[in-house]
């Protein structure tokens, strides 16, 4: 008996919810219909027709896996959640109305699309006031103006949610958008986002004599023109001996580089990191050091926060590792060393070898300590937007500014910054002096190896074979 009561209660609740949904939908329908016509025009629509309009209304934009595509269920679920949230929050102005009223993208694709479809498909003999309703309603203005803005917003959101779930080491996603008038035997307007996926092909790259797997760097672009973009870099964009070459290199990336990227730009969502990695490679800003190593700037939120060290294997570019801006062997890391004497071990001890140190510490509040990093060219590290963070709880502020100041003797009267010189990126004079102490720029510590990372960096000059390839 109890089960029957519960079932009856559940059915009643569902009826109440359906009634509330219909009332809210029709309230919005009337509101926007009056905006594109007037109150009198709305009253010309018979109640039976209004009921039929509701039954055949445009459904909210849905997300499904495209036919034949291996898209994990949790990715579909995550995309649904993000799409629903963002479409309900993004608003744009209906500039065709006298009030320039705003509408959410979600209301556009449900309510306003229902109005537009009704005005387009209703026949003159459906009921006697049809012709007058059409004459009074400015359908075409909404078909063109608002549609373009709504589709651009939808496109932006879909590109964001697919990119947000991308992982260059495993699988990437993009989407197509379809509008159906029949689905599962029911007539209406069904707007469907279909997810597609791509598993990057692997390549065994010869890195310093050791074969290591690398993944093809690619990205999926969604509506309005969906396609899979595999990233290549023109040889001339690398400068140096490549300046006059017409060759193009396919780009691959080691798992090691993706791991270092996540470790050093910690607490930033993987999809965000990989999205900006793609941007950095599509529009490469190239640097070379005195040993002919090639670095490409990595820009997070379009601001430089590190470098991608590249090498060559079988005429392909391999992204070998990621160096954070304060790491040794970057121009900024070397300037920081010259100004303060901070070595690799020191930056690790002071916890300034990761992005979180600049997002979740009191460094920015200490003008003297902050200026140290600004003078070394690391000012961008203080500007990372907090909305990129995976877990804001991990951004609890740590007190490390005083420790840094004390560690480098910043409070001492005789402390001074060194001016940058043209020799900052050249080998130190004492590297060939056996009596001198080891320099940070020794011939054994430029490139991070898989096994020891920055602790055993070694300078590698690209061979003539690699350059020719």
- Biggest sheet descriptor: 8 strands, mixed
User: Radius of gyration, rounded?
Assistant: 30 Å
Mean of all residue-level pLDDT scores: 83
- Which percent bin holds the helix content? 25-40%
Ends distance: 79 Å
3D shape = elongated
- SS class: alpha+beta
User: With helices defined by DSSP (H or I, 4 residues minimum), what is the helix count?
Assistant: 15
Which segments are poorly predicted (pLDDT under 50) over 5 or more consecutive residues? Answer: 412-469
Task: Write a structural description.
The protein has 469 residues and is of the alpha+beta class. The protein folds into two domains: 186 residues, no CATH class; 267 residues, no CATH class. Helices cover 38% and strands 22% of the residues. The chain has 15 helices and 17 strands. The strands form five sheets. Strands 6, 7, 10, 11, 12, 13, 14 and 15 form an eight-stranded mixed beta sheet that branches. Strands 1-5-4 form a three-stranded mixed beta sheet. The longest helix is centred in the first third of the chain and has 35 residues. The radius of gyration is 30 Å and the shape is elongated. The N and C termini lie far apart (79 Å).
Structure described in brief:
The chain is of the alpha+beta class.
SSE order and pairing:
Blueprint: H1 2-36, H2 39-43, H3 47-55, E1 62-65, H4 73-89, E2 91-93, E3 102-104, H5 105-121, H6 130-136, H7 139-164, E4 172-183, E5 186-198, E6 202-207, E7 210-216, E8 218-221, E9 227-230, E10 232-234, E11 248-254, H8 255-264, H9 270-282, E12 286-288, E13 294-300, E14 303-313, E15 316-324, H10 331-340, H11 344-349, H12 356-359, H13 367-375, H14 401-407, E16 447-449, E17 453-458, H15 464-468
Parallel strand pairs: 1-5, 11-15
Antiparallel strand pairs: 2-3, 4-5, 6-7, 7-11, 8-9, 10-11, 12-13, 13-14, 14-15, 16-17
Helix pairs in contact: 1-5, 4-7, 5-7
